[in-house]
Amino acid sequence: MKPYILPPESMTNEAISSRLTNSALTNIDKGLIKKKNLVYLELNGCSGNIISLLNGQNPDFEYTLNSMVNLRYCNSLMASEGDRAIEKLMNTLDEDFILAVEGAVALKNNGLYNVIGSWEGKPLTGLQAAKMFGERASHILAVGACATHGGISAAKPNPSQSVGLQKVLPQKKMIKLPGCPVHPDWFLGTLAHLLLYGEPETDNMDRPLMFYSSLIHDRCPRRPFFDRGIFAEKLGDKTCLFKLGCRGPVTRVDCPTRQWNGHVNWPIGDDTPCIGCAQFGFPDAMAPFISYDTTKVVKNE
Amino acid sequence: MQNIALLRLQINNLVTQARHDIFTLSNQDDPSIKQQILQRLWETMSSIHFLSELLANQAMTTLSFPPTQQQSPVDLRNTIQQQIPPITPSRNQTSQQSNQRTFSIEELSNYDGKNGRAAYVAVDDIVYDVTNNRAWAAASHFGLTAGKEYSGEFASCHAGQQSILDSLPVVGRVG
């Protein structure tokens, strides 16, 4: 049997993202790239993106952050707390830094619905911090649904009057990574790209094309069932989940090929419909997440 | 009756194809080729599933079905990339006959896509069928539900995109 000629490099998503991050690390070691400061602000949200990022692997989150950037502030991951933590945050203000923001900006009562610490005896609101650091950052990454467009924090009736980061920094260019939560690769890959080659190419909604260019529907392994009109009637069915309310056809991201939890599975792979968490307008515009009454025919209702 | 014979022929061809693939799979070590054969097996299975549903339907009604192209078992080497074409049933004859139907807004609200009903929406007084439109999963689209008139909403989100409307089946007018 003739031996197969293998391509020089593996072209899986995982291999590409690990090549990207590894070459960033190599270049930092050689002194070709300067390690940059990273400030990670957590505003009106649930820490879900941090939790998701901790699940990053190859490279893992801690290693990447320690070796690729100087993490100057992150309320969930740093050892300091209280005033000392805020002091560290304020010390970075006059330096060059990349800003990553997770969570929405609460506007109500001049931002008092979201206080992230106290500074000089006064409460430091998320609104203040977002404006203060957003104006000075060299690059801004809006991480997750809440930071990119308000997300769950801004869902009706939106008691805190939350908005996405762009609303309070209308003039600033930012890279948006929608998703609830963000996949570790989307964040780490964008960060590595930023260090290596500068800002990645984005679409007209500021999402990096390397992750957000294809519709879930177009790469869905269950697409043959959609094309033939074979639809699931309940959760757990192995066919197309369209009639149950799958938002894959309106959601642009690479879940079908990337997959989650260490690249092992994703919602549709586990027989539940996509809820469109990486689409602008989530969750209100993606509701209802599940509908049974489209497939079930009820007589004499 | 001829249609049923054609369907049977198609199913038999697909079964032969599947057997052929299973045989090839059992002798195949290369994981990348395995993956492709598995994908084709899956497509074959979904075609069989679809055709059997169709047969069951035909057994109950005498709905006409246009013959689709036949497939014969193929050799793996040349056709790994070959896709089984999607089989799209012809649209219901009833909807073709009634695309001049006039709906009142009240009538339109019955077509909300629930309980097996069709999902219709109206834009600029024309009623479109979105039952199986991919952007209308579970008869809802970015917070809008089927059975209503959405001229304003369409203009605000899809201004100048008449092509979207042109691709939708027309079922009638609002009058």
Rounded to the nearest angstrom, the radius of gyration of chain A is 21 Å
In quaternary terms, these chains amount to heterodimer
Number of domains of chain B: 2
Radius of gyration of chain B: 21 Å
Overall mean pLDDT of chain A stands at: 90
Estimate what percentage of residues of chain A fall within beta strands: 5-15%
Q: Under the CATH scheme, which class of the largest domain in chain A?
A: Alpha Beta
| Biggest sheet strand line-up of chain B | 1-6-3-2
Which bin fits the share of residues in helices of chain B?
40-55%
Q: Find the count of extended strands of chain B (DSSP E, 2+ residues).
A: 6
CATH topology of the largest domain in chain A: Rossmann fold
Structural class of chain A, by secondary structure, is: alpha/beta
The stretches of 5 or more residues of chain A where confidence is low (pLDDT under 50) are: none
Q: How many domain modules of chain A?
A: 2
The helix content of chain A, as a percent range, equals 25-40%
Note the overall shape of chain B: elongated
Counting helices, strands and paired strands, the structural category of chain B is alpha+beta
- The CATH architecture classification of the largest domain in chain A is 3-Layer(aba) Sandwich
Biggest interface: A-B, 36 and 27 residues
| Main sheet makeup of chain A | 5 strands, parallel
In percent, how much strand structure appears in the residues of chain B? 5-15%
